[in-house]
Amino acid sequence: MTTSTIPRTRFSPAPTGSARHGVGFWAVAMAFLVAMAFSTVPTPLYPLYEVRDGFSTFMVTVVFAVYSVGVMVSLVLAGHVSDWVGRRRILVAALALELVAAVLFLSTAALPMLLVARFVTGLGVGMLTATATAHLHELHAAHRPGASAQRFEMVSTAANIGGLGLGPLVAGFLAQYVGAPLRVPYAVFVVLLVLVMAALALAPETVTEPADRPRYRPQRVSADHGDRAGYIAAAAAAFASFSVFGLFTSIAAGFVGHTLGHPSRALAGGIVFAVFGGAALAQTLTHRLTPRAKMTAGLLAEGAGFLTLVVGMHTVNLAAFLTGGVVAGVGAGLLFKAAVGRVVAMAAPARRSEALASLFLIAYVGLSVPAVAIGVATLSLTATAAMTWFAGLLLVLLSLVALLDRRSPGGR
């Protein structure tokens, strides 16, 4: 499809700089945070499912893969639709899917329902990520015309990655200290999802539906957004960063309980929160760095952190595992922030959601494929050996990202 056939986004004529845009910005940010937190609620609970149903590490990665497939299907089918039907309409639909998933988790804990609930969760997240990011960018621009995009970048990536860390922290605490650990965390998020759905009424729409709605087409994955080398570098960075996030939202809790001998659900959730919290904090503190500096720091931190994590597994040292995880999370957070910022800057407004949807699609491939590969590897290797092989492949990938970034004029 040529550029001329892409629908042109038309922005609402609400008063620029109005207070309503500021309120809406934070309402969308909160909805983004809660939705992403809900998506990782099962992370510290997987070992409980393993004990109850006799799951293997491989089966945990299958459940996780079903979620990732839901995300990718949704990104392909609906991740870009808000460019012409409106941001808020898609956000409400995405949160409604998350709410359905929460109810499914509450209805029964059987494996078939767990798989369906995770798939529905993925559908909601796939609709939400690119749409919420684009909506936040437009609300920020309307509320603070002429201001830098730093607040948008900090809030959007913190809501995304910070939410991914908040879910395991809340679920781990509830599972450890409150009864019914496979039900109470989901009940809490039913309430939270309803509240943020209501809060979206405060957010003004930033896209006016065109008079002639274009013919629907699935999302295409394209690097044609003004800086091909820059887009490919951003996509590779997103893949690399989400491969680390996928590890910690799928099987890291099992490693902590089985390989390192610490079965506490609160500890597992706290470790995942520390990893994602490190990522969010790094994004907040590095807004003055150039795009190239963010990318370089992210590459170095992710590589060094993951090597330290593997050393912790070889030596059965929880402190080394945690330190490596946090440092790797810092690196992944910087890589992802650099990727999102670069894509938002290069994409035309009419194709911004499309460009972001493609980026998130590639990122979620990185979220699922490496985690599933590690799960398959554990059928014939120890968890430590599987992680060692993964560390080697990750270093190769990070080196490739560095080479791609050097070829991009946007990274200089």
Low-confidence stretches: 1-15
How many helices? The count is 15
Radius of gyration: 20 Å
Structural class: mainly alpha
- By CATH, the architecture is named Up-down Bundle
The count of domains is 1
Mean pLDDT across every amino acid position:
84
Assign the CATH topology: Growth Hormone, Chain: A
Largest sheet: none
Q: Which CATH top level class fits?
A: Mainly Alpha
CATH superfamily: MFS general substrate transporter like domains
SSE topology string: HHHHHHHHHHHHHHH
What's the number of extended β-strand segments?
Answer: 0
Strand content: under 5%
Distance between the termini: 31 Å
Share of helix, binned: over 70%
Query: Shape, please?
Result: globular
Transmembrane segments: 21-38, 58-78, 90-110, 116-136, 157-178, 184-208, 229-255, 267-285, 297-316, 322-344, 356-380, 386-404
Keywords: Cell membrane, Membrane, Transmembrane, Transmembrane helix, Transport
InterPro entries: MFS (IPR011701), MFS_dom (IPR020846), MFS_trans_sf (IPR036259), MFS_Transporters (IPR050171)
Domain Major facilitator superfamily (MFS) profile: 23-409
Question: Can you give me a brief rundown of this structure?
Answer:
The protein has 15 helices and no strands. The chain has a single domain, classed as MFS general substrate transporter like domains (Growth Hormone, Chain: A).
Structure commentary:
It is a single chain. With 412 residues, the chain is an all-alpha fold. The chain has a single domain (14-208, 221-411), classed as Growth Hormone, Chain: A (Up-down Bundle). Helix content is 75%, strand content 0%. It is built from 15 helices and no strands. It has helices spanning 19-39, 46-53, 57-78, 82-85, 87-107, 111-143, 150-177, 184-199, 228-250, 252-259, 265-285, 291-314, 318-346, 352-377, 383-406. α1 (19-39) runs antiparallel to α6 (111-143), α1 packs across α7 (150-177) and α12 runs antiparallel to α15. The protein is globular. The two termini are 31 Å apart. The relative contact order is 0.16.
